[in-house]
Each structure stands twice: as C-alpha cells, then as structure tokens.
Amino acid sequence: MDSMDDNPTLDRRAELSEFLRTRRARLKPEDVGLPSAGRHRRVPGLRREELAQLAGVSVAYYTRLEQGNGRNVSAEVLDAIARALRLSDTEHAHLVHLAKPTQTRRKQRAPRRQQQVRPALRHLLENLEGVPAYIGGARSDILAWNRMAAALFGDWGALAAAERNWARLTFLDPASRELFRDWEQKASDMVSYLRLYAGRNPDDPELSALVGELSVKSEEFRKLWATHDVKEKGHGVKRMRHPLVGELTLSYETLHLPDDDGQFLSVYHAEPGTASAEALRLLASWGADATQVPH
Predict the structure, then answer these.
(1) Which residue, 16, 39, 53, 165, is most buried by CB atoms nearer than 10 A?
(2) Distance from the Cα of residue 106 to its chain's centroid
(3) In the prediction, which pLDDT does 33 show?
C-alpha cells in the first residue's frame, strides 16, 4: 500500500511524489505538442525532462519536487507545473496542499473525533419530505439522515457508528454492488473524494486507519487508491436498483457546509413525472417498513 508505514498518518512527501508521477504518466507527448516517441519509449507518459521543459523549470528542480521535496517551492512554479500537467482546478488545489503544507494547514484541520451535526441541520433533514437526504462528514462518514434516505440506502441506524461510512459500505458491503448499477463509478468517485481529503488532512490517524483497513480487505480499493485521482463532491446522476421499487435514476446535489468541519448535505431527487419519481413516492408510502428489507 503506497504512502503507508508504521506512522499513524499519511506521508505527505510520498503523497506529493506519487501524485506528480501519476499525473505525468497519464500525458502522452502528442497531448502537449511534442513529437510521438514511437515504440522505443521506455516510460509511460512524459519524461521528467519534458515536463520540466514545458513548465519552464530545470530538470533537477522538478526532480526534487517529484521526489517529494516541496520545500520553498513558489506558487508560480506550482502554477506552471499544474498547467504543464493539465491539472483540473481540484487537482491543482490538491498539489498546493501537498507541496506547501505550512500555508494550507492553518485553513484545513482534521475534524474533531466526534463530528457534531447542528440541531438546525437535523431539523432541516426531518423537514425534507419526499426526497432522500443525508449529511456527510470527514472520511466519508455518514452523520445524519432523513427517513427517505434510510428507505433508499438502507437502515443506517442499525449500524454501529464506525460502520456508517460510505467508503466502508461501498467496498465491504456486498449490498452496495446490488444497489448501485454503476458501482465501478461509485467506487472510483469514493476513492477520489478520500484522496482529496487526505491531501488536506494527512495527519488524520482515523483516515490512515480507514485506508489501511480498506487496502487490506479490498483489492479494488487498493488499485484505485494507487491511481492518486482526486475529485470534489458535486452533482450528478445515480442509477440504482432498489429491492422494493426496482430501477431508479436520481439526480443528486451536494451542498457544502463551510462552518461545520467539512460537512455537506446530499439531496437526491427524481425528474417529475418519471418512473423514478413514482418509485420515490412508493418508498415514501412504505415508510419505516422500507428499511427492513435487506439492502
């Protein structure tokens, strides 16, 4: 498992090194206007000297950075490397977190061990009728949810608090493969969210324990973790296969709660007049009984 050792936290230098290496490996010379190397190219993607040339830095300087030494690197150099690597905005921010921890650590702190949901937010969840909604937190923990979320995803209240975690459920609960029709995409997204959180909170021992557990228990998680992909939670569509109401296609929105330890509110909804909307209505009519069906 990369970036893990006897230390209870992630190794930021190793994270920086592997992130840059994997981003460089995914670019082909022709992607950046360089001649194709043909069959005799020994490394996947761009060579270090090619990337350094594109970024306008010396090969030695870039090599030190890719070896995990981000000390004294300037924002301008990181911007140039991000452009050369064609990083997304999320990847660019992740690179800055990894390379310049002293500047970002003041803004990003690992949450308290007990993540608290404000009473007003719990009240909001209770009043979101007809749509599944839940509040998530650090490390993909599931902190609070409404009745419709339990009917759709399963009875989270029956689980121990430590088990209410999307990453654990996705990779270790076989029911998730039945519920999510696009399980591979769900799994990839989940690891990308954890990677982004890891860049901001490498000193979180609970994150390190979670990654260690999943890496041991799930080969799929281990392979996805090694890609170093990062992604911010946002919006999209999920296709599901519910044991009571069958197929659903639901849109979801993620609303970040900036004053609540990195918490977010996720709400799922169906297009009016569709079969999925009718399926949600049926779930609502089942009420608490829907949570008794194995998921």
Answers:
(1) 16
(2) 22
(3) 72
Burial of 99 (0-12, 13-18, 19+ CB in 10 A): buried
How many whole angstroms separate alpha carbon 290 and alpha carbon 287? Answer: 6
| Number of Cβ atoms within 10 Å of the Cβ of 10 | 22
Taking the C-alpha atoms of residue 114 and residue 293, their distance in angstroms, rounded to an integer, is 30
- Neighbour-count burial for 102-116, b at 16+ CB within 10 Å, e otherwise: eeeeeeeebbeeebe
The confidence score (pLDDT) of residue 201 equals 87
* Cβ–Cβ < 8 Å for 35, 29: yes
pLDDT at 47 over 60: yes
**Helices 75-85 + 48-55 axis angle, to 10:** 120
Q: Nearest-CA neighbor of 248 among 259, 256, 237, 257?
A: 237
Q: What tokens were used for 169?
A: 């459920």
Q: In angstroms, what CA-CA distances link 38 with 26, 27, 35, 43, 51? A: 16, 15, 9, 12, 18
List Cα–Cα distances, 164 to 19, 130, 161, 235, in angstroms. 29, 22, 5, 22
pLDDT confidence band for 293 (50 / 70 / 90): very low
Instruction: Report the pLDDT averaged over residues 107-118.
Output: 66
pLDDT in tens, 143-187: 999 999 999 999 999 999 999 999 999 999 999 999 999 999 999
